[in-house]
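Q: What structure does this chain adopt?
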Amino acid sequence: WGTGHATLSCESEVHVPFAVINADDFYGRSAFKILHDYLKSAQDRDGVYDYCMVGYVLENTLTEHGHVARGVCTVDRDGYLVEIHERTHIERFGEAIRYTEDGENWVTISASSVVSLNTWGFTPSLFSELAARFPLFLRANSDNIETAEYFLPDVVGSLIEERKATVKVLSTDERWLGVTYRED
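A:
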């Protein structure tokens, strides 16, 4: 059921700050270093969770061989995530980059947009939030439970909106390399 469910399944084994990444992407060496450096001192304070994510430049995360899914981010001037919107179908059209939610209507998006590739850093506080919200996900998706995904970015976005978490965006110029398409 997606990244939220996969992360939740690790709850009994993880008791320190940790990173979550997708297995079908290469994020670049510096991404792992900045995650590590942040997580060394990550600590929830005053009831607010201390999380981070690596923020990539959209242009550096596209393939010439199909579409990609990315979390398109809004970041404040202090470098914290304000909101994230999952865009599951982003493609390059010549010099333009566009996304669609319905396969028919396309929206142009800036090549310099900050995006998430699910390269996250969390404290163990995330597990209680994932566990509490998972039954709600199951109920809300009872009609399409075989294909529904419990998106980790959706949970993080809700925590930000509820003022329960801050997410520091760790910027990188790394180029993404995926293994979704054979040609890549």
